[in-house]
Design goal:
Blueprint lengths: L2 H6 L10 H14 L12 H7 L2 E6 L8 E6 L2 E7 L4 H19 L12 H15 L2 H11 L3 H8 L3 H14 L7
Parallel strand pairs: 1-3
Antiparallel strand pairs: 2-3
Helix pairs in contact: 2-5, 4-5, 7-8
Length: 180
C-alpha cells in the first residue's frame, strides 16, 4: 500500500464516518497531492489516479450502462472507463471509482466490486463531487455566473446533474445559500 493511501486511511472505518470525515479525507488528498491540482484550482483526475498507482484504460467493450470498472491484483491496478461516455462523464466516473477504492477497498490486496450498498454509493459519489468541485472555487464561479448550471458544469468539466447535486449539498450541509 502506498504512503498516500496510508495517510488517507488513518481515520476510523467508514461505518462511523460522517460527511465531515469524507470532507477531511478529501482535504488530505488535496494537501498531500497538491501536484495534482491544476493552475485553475481543479484536480487533474488522471494525475490523481496515477498517484494511487492506477492505469486508466478507455474500453469500447463495456456495456452502455457500465461507466467503468476497477481491478487490483498482483498485475497492477487498472481503471477501465467506458469509451462511449462524454469527457465530463469520464472525469466523474474516474473520480467516483477512485473514491470507492479509497473509502472501501484500499486496504485489500485483491478486489473487484460489482455492487455497493446505497450508503456506500452515496459516500463515494459525495467524495467524487468534493474532489471535482471544490467549494471555494465553486462559490466564486457561482457568483460570477449568476448560477448558470450549464456554465458551471462546463467550467468544472462535470455532467450537469453532478453540478446540481453539488450545489444542493453546499446549501443543505452548510446551512446557507450560495450568493449570486
Amino acid at each position: 500500500m502506498n504512503d498516500v493511501v496510508k495517510i488517507i486511511n488513518q481515520d476510523s472505518s467508514l461505518e462511523n464516518d460522517t460527511k465531515f470525515l469524507v470532507e477531511e479525507r478529501v482535504k488530505k488528498i488535496f494537501k498531500k497531492l497538491n501536484r495534482c491540482v491544476e493552475s485553475n484550482g481543479l484536480i487533474d483526475v488522471t494525475r490523481l489516479v496515477n498517484s494511487f498507482n492506477f492505469e486508466i484504460v478507455e474500453n469500447m467493450g463495456l456495456p452502455k450502462l457500465l461507466n467503468g470498472i476497477v481491478t487490483c491484483d498482483m498485475n497492477g491496478n487498472q481503471m477501465c472507463i467506458n469509451n462511449n461516455l462524454s469527457k465530463e462523464s469520464k472525469r466523474y466516473s474516474i473520480a467516483y471509482l477512485l473514491s470507492t477504492y479509497l473509502l472501501y477497498y484500499s486496504k485489500q490486496e485483491f478486489f473487484s466490486f460489482n455492487h455497493l450498498e446505497s450508503c456506500e454509493d452515496y459516500n463515494a459519489a459525495f467524495m467524487a463531487r468534493l474532489l471535482l468541485i471544490p467549494e471555494s472555487i465553486l462559490r466564486t464561479a457561482y457568483s460570477n455566473s449568476n448560477g448558470d448550471i450549464q456554465y458551471l458544469s462546463e467550467l468544472f468539466e462535470v455532467p450537469s446533474n453532478v453540478m446540481e447535486q453539488r450545489l444542493k449539498e453546499i446549501n443543505k450541509f452548510k446551512k446557507f445559500a450560495l450568493k449570486k
